[in-house]
Design goal:
3 helices, globular, 9 strands
């Protein structure tokens, strides 16, 4: 017989281990680990990330209207933990930890080049239903390391060792 859970927080599992990268109006890059990320539409293709308004990256996404979702492999654990535990308010996380990046092609944000998948997004809407502001992003491009694409351009998710 099923019982009622006492703690309903994070009742949906698994959630993707996700790093959101962004850039402020002065050209400073930042990245943070987010616990809320999901597909929200197939046509047009849209995704969602949730960011707490007190986070340093929140105002960057709000002002720029763009972000990149980066999906890390398991061998990126140290960087992932660092990006999830330090604030860009206090230090340049990219410089301190040597995070490799390049400019996105369609949005004003950095792509984390050590992640096998990076999804460029333009913010089309946001909603504040509770603790996190949910940014709905139209997917502008999906960058995938070549070894994880088949001949038709489909992503070979089972070949990646994602976190």
């Amino acid at each position: 017989m099923k019982k009622l859970a006492k703690n309903m927080m994070l009742c949906m599992q698994p959630v993707p281990q996700t790093i959101v990268s962004c850039r402020d109006k002065d050209g400073n890059n930042n990245a943070l680990v987010v616990g809320f990320a999901a597909n929200v539409s197939l046509d047009p293709v849209m995704v969602m990330v949730g960011i707490v308004p007190t986070r340093h990256s929140h105002h960057m996404v709000k002002e720029s209207g763009s972000f990149v979702i980066n999906l890390p492999r398991k061998d990126f654990q140290k960087e992932y933990s660092y990006l999830g535990s330090k604030s860009g308010r206090d230090e340049d996380k990219f410089a301190v930890f040597g995070i490799k990046w390049e400019n996105a092609k369609y949005v004003n944000a950095p792509i984390l080049t050590d992640c096998p998948v990076s999804i460029e997004c333009s913010v089309v809407d946001s909603i504040m239903p509770g603790t996190h502001e949910l940014f709905i992003g139209k997917v502008e491009a999906v960058h995938v390391d070549e070894e994880y694409l088949d001949d038709n351009g489909n992503i070979l998710w089972d070949k990646m060792d994602l976190m």
